[in-house]
Amino acid sequence: MEKALTQDIIRIESEHLVQTYKRPPFVITRGNGVMLYDAEGNEYLDMVAGIAVNALGYADPGMIHAIQEAATGLLHTSSLYYTEPQARLAAELCEKSFADRVFFTNSGTEANEGALKFIRKFHYDAGDRERIEIVCFSGAFHGRTLGALSLTPKEKYQKPFAPLMPGVVVAQYNDIASADAAITDRTAAVIVEPVQGEGGINPATPEFLQALRRLCDERGALLWFDQVQCGIGRTGTLWSSDPSGVAPDVQTLAKALGGGMPIGAVLTTNRVADHIHPGDHGSTYAGSPFITSVAGYVFNRISQPSFLEHVREVGGYLKERLQEINSPLIKEVRGRGLMVGMEMHVEVGDIVEQGYKNGLMLVNAGTHVLRFVPPLILEKPHVDVMIERLTGILAKMGDKGS
To answer: Domains along the chain?
Structure first.
């Protein structure tokens, strides 16, 4: 019966969904902690977390309670009215960041689109109508809508949808000289991921982020941190930019903020927010009382010093154990907290496929990097299980290669 269900769901999906994803041949039906289960009862240790989203894992009692409690109240009012959960979450985000103001969205790419408009409006009001360029960096990923896609300099993503938004300048990530040459008196903002996700788990050096802050200040541009994937505890500090000591003018969030609920946010200073007025931007669904109530619980939980210490401790252990794997297929292990990448000498698609057969959920970041972004509640024994299974997979692949 379970196998028949799997086949039926795969058939329905193939007939009725737009085919934008290549999915493995099983149907996920439930989860608990850091484990997922398919319709046939197979168990998987999840090192993906819905692409760095499910920060508290699955069936978390506190989150279930927050959802149940929120569901007894208002689900939606639109953005026309005051609601308590929205206001309180905005206050929490401001209190624990550089920001003075928050605009809520439904996703990370929506947050990036909103930030683009905020930045354009800031310079428009200043009378600097020629300042429209956005500097982004090699390896960046900022979303798939047209504005965000324009800032994602990868031909595979961009080419079929050209022409894209004009005025985008691409500099080299972690290269201060390249950034210096790219940031001019036409630059409206510089967007950077403090740790690149889709680009291969590449941390920016503190010196690079500090140089971007200095260059933006010198040349009248705004500094924009995209922390959609790397923010909210993922790297073991609340914000992945914390080690640099640099505060941006604009910051975009999503993924872990809702712990699985669809929410994003644009954080900004009053200096920028003072130029955004009623009618300049909006969203019908964003910041609903239901979603912000649950996100408030998630954000408060992740913000606790003990929770962040746990991420640093287990993340450090994960990185150490990955570095201990003796395989000629491994080129480098890098990252911070529970955002770690293992660059390989081979394409990683087969490793991901073999992971499914060995009870592991793995995901790539580009063609040659395995990305480890598990639920932030991961424990060291889970790491040990993952390492044992992954070591076996790599050993078999290495034997075949030789």
So the answer is: 2-60+305-401 (3.90.1150.10), 73-303 (3.40.640.10)
